[in-house]
Design goal:
Bound molecules: iron/sulfur cluster
Shape: globular
Oligomer: single chain
CATH architecture of the largest domain: 3-Layer(aba) Sandwich
Number of domains: 2
CATH topology of the largest domain: Rossmann fold
Largest sheet: 8 strands, mixed
Radius of gyration: 21 Å
Number of helices: 13
Structural class: alpha/beta
Helix content: 25-40%
Strand content: 15-25%
């Protein structure tokens, strides 16, 4: 496989030369100004952050993408997918469309601010998916968000940062977690069947778990029973039993080794691009506000390094590889999670360490590197890339 092109604009700016102007330069380098035609449906897959996290993707960048699509008379639609669980309180939840849109509005993402519809690609409950068979080591089918089938072009517009479970939150994660429904999200989190303690159940007058079960596989007659053949491990029932019924009638024990979790996510990514068609995907990594946690954390630690810039590519492996390399080259912020390490060292390994489930002792993670290696093994893309600097113009010094 030959080297993949990764286009890059750095963070240096000046008058008439903002990051939004630079994003437009990347847009043209990717050929999107020619590919998007009148009335083509352009899905823009991003993450609206969690309430309390101030390091998420800035809405103005998404608005710029929307405006670029409209300038070509395309039809832009912002898409995201539901998180696991149910009912995390005011602005806290991202687990149904209603919860997520309320939280997204608090973070600045509405149809009004974006100038485009916002849709959950896996439906109200996160279970509107279609099954893509794959021959993975960990999963044999991937539940891909049904709405994606309607897209002519998919722009995977990712905030590049760390991630507690898989080391790196980049393009591959935006595909492998962000574009799948709850079942496939659960698969990479190492699910077990919910544990039923029927004697704790409050009985039919409660029924809260029944109301939130998207597959209708719960009966309470007179105590809870679950038909596990239809369970998608969404843990809605676990959440409401604990928080609303204040019972321990349903509990869950999750956990897997981080490498298995990471590989499952990559297998999900394979199902997404092959289920939809690789030719429809275009990738951007926004490497601004790069902290060690995912945007889904309801806080946002300080940046690990100064802002890098924005990357764009047709290759999801190459773009994440280039993003890691430039992050490692950068000077660390001295009081950040990787402040003690030198430029050139592996920042995400230090900043997103593995906690040993038994001892709690943390060791440097390898998951971000495993994402790249395994994605290359599965033929998703290549780690070999050519970095092409798209902004030749020097910034104005004020
Ligand atoms: S929510 Fe809990 S207590 Fe209520 S019916 Fe379901 S299992 Fe029983
Ligand atoms: S029984 Fe399964 S599908 Fe139903 S709410 Fe619980 S975890 Fe979800």
């Amino acid at each position: 496989m030959s080297d993949s092109d990764v286009w890059f604009v750095n963070r240096q700016v000046g008058p008439q030369y903002s990051m939004l102007d630079k994003l437009e330069i990347l847009w043209k380098k990717m050929g999107l100004n020619k590919i998007i035609k009148k009335n083509k449906r352009v899905f823009i897959k991003t993450h609206f952050g969690a309430y309390g996290n101030l390091m998420y993707m800035r809405p103005a960048l998404l608005r710029k993408v929307v405006d670029l699509v409209k300038a070509q008379k395309g039809y832009p639609i912002l898409v995201e997918s539901a998180g696991l669980g149910y009912g995390a309180g005011l602005y806290g939840g991202r687990t149904t469309a209603a919860e997520y849109f309320r939280m997204a509005a608090a973070n600045g993402y509405t149809i009004g601010t974006m100038g485009a519809p916002i849709v959950l690609l896996d439906g109200y409950w996160g279970t509107d998916t279609f099954s893509v068979p794959i021959s993975g080591n960990h999963v044999k089918n991937v539940e891909v968000g049904m709405a994606l089938r309607d897209a002519d072009v998919i722009i995977v517009f990712t905030h590049f940062k760390g991630h507690g479970g898989t080391g790196m939150g980049g393009t591959l994660k935006n595909l492998g977690i962000g574009c799948v429904g709850k079942y496939s999200k659960a698969m990479m989190h190492g699910p077990q069947n919910p544990i039923v303690n029927a004697e704790e159940c409050r009985g039919p007058e409660c029924r809260k778990c029944i109301d939130v079960c998207p597959t209708r596989c719960i009966t309470v007659d007179p105590k809870i029973e679950i038909n596990f053949d239809r369970c998608v491990h969404c843990i809605h029932c676990v959440s409401v039993c604990r928080s609303e019924a204040q019972s321990k009638a349903i509990t869950a024990e999750w956990g897997t080794d981080p490498i298995k979790s990471t590989e499952t996510m990559i297998e999900n990514a394979l199902g997404v691009i092959d289920g939809i068609g690789r030719d429809r995907f275009y990738y951007f990594n926004v490497a601004l506000d790069i902290s060690e946690t995912c945007d889904c954390a309801p806080f946002g630690p300080m940046a690990l390094t100064p802002d890098l810039g924005i990357f764009a590519s047709r290759d999801p492996v190459a773009i994440d590889t280039a993003s890691i390399d430039l992050l490692n080259d950068a000077q660390p912020v001295t009081i950040s999670a990787c402040g003690d390490i030198q430029p050139g060292e592996d920042k995400l390994a230090i900043a997103t360490p593995w906690p040993d489930p038994h001892t709690g002792k943390k060791t440097p993670t390898q998951c971000h590197l495993r994402q790249l290696d395994y994605a290359e093994e599965l033929g998703i893309g290549t780690k070999k890339y050519k970095l092409r600097k798209a902004d030749k113009r020097k910034p104005t010094i004020l």
